[in-house]
Amino acid sequence: MASSGRPLDLDPRGVTPPHVTRGPRLHRRAIDSLGGWRSDGAARWVFIWPSVVIILFLSIFPLVASLTLSFSKLVFAKGRIEVDFVGLQNFQILLFGTERTHLLGLLKPPTPLGWVVFGLGAALVARTLLTSLTRSRVRPIGAVLRVAGAVALSGLLWLVIQTLFSEGGRPGSLVVTIVYVLAGILVQFLLGLGLAILAVQPLRGRRFFRVVFLLPLTITPIGVGYMFRMMTDTGKGPLEPVFGLLGMGQFTWVTDPWAARIAVIIGDAWQWTPFVFIVLLAALEGLDQEIREAAFVDGASHWQIFRHITIPAILPVSTTIVLIRLIEGFKIVDMPNILTGGGPGTATQSLTLQAYLDWRTLNLGRSAAIAYILLLLVTVIATAYVGWARGRIRRI
Amino acid sequence: MVSRYRSVAAAITAIFIVTACSGSTPSAAPASVAAAPSATTEASPAGSSAAQDFSGVTVNLLTFNGPQVAEPLQRRAPDFEKLTGAKINVNAVGFQEIYDKAILDLSTGTNSFDAFVFNPQWLGDFTGPGYLEDLSSRVTADPVLDWQDIGPFFRDFNATYAGKTYMIPLDGDFHMVYYRSDILDAPPKTWDEYLTIAAAQNGKDLNGDGTPDYGSCIAKKKGQQSYWWIISVAGGLLQSQGTGQGAFFDTTNMNPLWNNDAVKLALETYKKTMDYGPKDEINLGVGDTRGLFTTGRCALSMDWGDIGTLALDPATSTVQDKVGAVITPGWTQVLDRASNKLVACDATTCPDAVDGVNYAPFASFGGWSGAINAAADAKKKDAAYAFLAYMSAPAQSSEDVTLGKTGFNPYRTSHFENLAPWKAVGMSDAAAQNYLGAIKSSLQNPNMVLDMRIPKTKEYEQDVLDTAVSQYIAGELTVEETMTQITDGWNQITDQVGRDAQLKAYQDSLGVQR
Fold it and tell me: How much is the pLDDT for B72?
């Protein structure tokens, strides 16, 4: 651990900053003591290796371990737990075996509307693929990955169509999760944007409402789940008189699959809209007012200013916030678990809840297999979204 | 710089490979997680119980937070401590967690629990690997426990597995139908009559509070204890040739008996009861439906023995002495296993039928029972045994089975013969005779349906059956899809464990002498 004895150059141009030369002696001594780490070799051992080891143990190793687990089955024997390698059995059960309808749902031929939706969706995927392949220089591996992604997206779309746009079809936990994510993000983004626009207006009490709008974010998701469980109880809950007045006294949120799913989406939106709100509020407040004022002077309407100036300006932030919510949304578990217990039946189970329930019943192999299916799903959709968003931002 | 990155990358790869290949197991632990050294000292064969000195001994016991079941254990633990010096820590968890916590604790050798009060159906999973203490010599030599006073079914079936006694019964469980004796002239004998009565009573004000009430209340919440009801409804359609015939699998090849006209009718009947129940019945647990019945809101309900005693509590019940209990309704037809079709009951097809009705009362669950961790310290085993024997002894249990808050129902001969404790809690002679008579008639029925009791019973019932039935009543599956899902799921478990081994275990479980 050799030391050159020279002070560390903090400035990239090699000039010692004035505050260092003028600073107290103590500061100088502390910085001098770091001089020994200028050696790249020593720095590598001291700074990089610990990080690498920590990352290996905390991130990569569990990832590999859970992948191994997904190919295994636990057997409880006398005084020990045996881990039997079962190959692809867990995936086979989930995708083709007894858990197929639980995971993928009940697949039926699409209705005419289903065919139209699928046609439009497939055309959009194909167009995006062609654009990405022709507009930029793509390496062969990149092209292969793009095609694979497009095929996977089309497959997902076909699954959604066969379960949601078909006679007698029923979504499994995978499609239910996609519904939670897409519907949830749409509701959260629109509400969050609307509230953020309201909160930047020079209205009385806006400081108060900014705080109020943020409150749901501070409550633990389990607390939100229990709160919504009470509120959706039309017979004994605090909103019972309201439901009675609306003629919904005999309605129950928990007995109808779609009502239960909508209740989950509402609860999730209530919890996470403030997150979207606070980020978009910051983005709106950071906008350059001069451009807006110039447009106004030029005769632009409020809508035109919003459409052509505000939206493009906050698009990068919006893209990021949607990506964050997209990845987070796929992991939804508290709300369906507390609000409906995954029911009625398995109607509100998300992939994470299904994995959790399998884990709780000690079926760790199948739980890990579901987790890897979820990982694949998130990767495909998030990558496709980032590719699409990047193209949109470039065009602005 | 490039070479520096290469060396870092090589090092990362090396660590990655080393860590990935360090074992074929998915966790940091090796493939076989060794158990902690277990106590090798043979527990003393001493009899019971309260007279022994266990000062300084603490017993950790795992059970169900009903809040029933945990209640009597927690209530009597201080009394036991005064008598013996042993401190009993009652760890109560949710129904879904008991099995997992217990088996993980035992299999990993953590052994944080010395005793358990859980489901006797799980014995196959717990005795196979040797997790539980063999209590055979203790129970027969214990005058305080009075083993012979315990009903033969609970003693020889619930408490025993493969010829050895592993459990001490604390509860006796049978499904029965409860009805409002002040409203109905006669209880239902068949499930068709059940539906007819439920339809007639539904919407009437049954408790005089001015609001419409329900014809039938049956808990149907997934993940609780609801999956047993469908077995009660299907029992009389599936089994008519006596207990040994079985109602779950073909006893020659272990093929499930749950994809046929009998189960189809049972499922449809079960779902039909929802038309006459609370609108959110699909989300109600047994605690909810018991509360509805004892507040006078239901004309009919199906339950274990609990409603009979809960209805006595003046603090919560508005139907004291207005409750009747009767053997679970039967059917006038039964499954012909050769053709897989339903046939009418006659002397051949239903030899035990009464007035043409084939009854098949379901010994659902069997009753909460206590077991001891074989790896526990010898002194703790003694203390745990003494506590369980103390709880089961006639002096304590004859009082506990009369209290609705305990969740314990009668299981000793003395519980049925000595009516004094029942009268002491406010049950009239007639009500006591009716309530105990319903249990006795179920217990003595030659066509009683035994609950499943083979390795992986928890997966067969609690995972596969519960999920499929809950999906069916939620409208997610058709009746045909439900039956297919049940049979496919059961076959999958059977094949994973080994069909021959499971078949033998099932045959053995049906060979019990009552």
Answer: 96
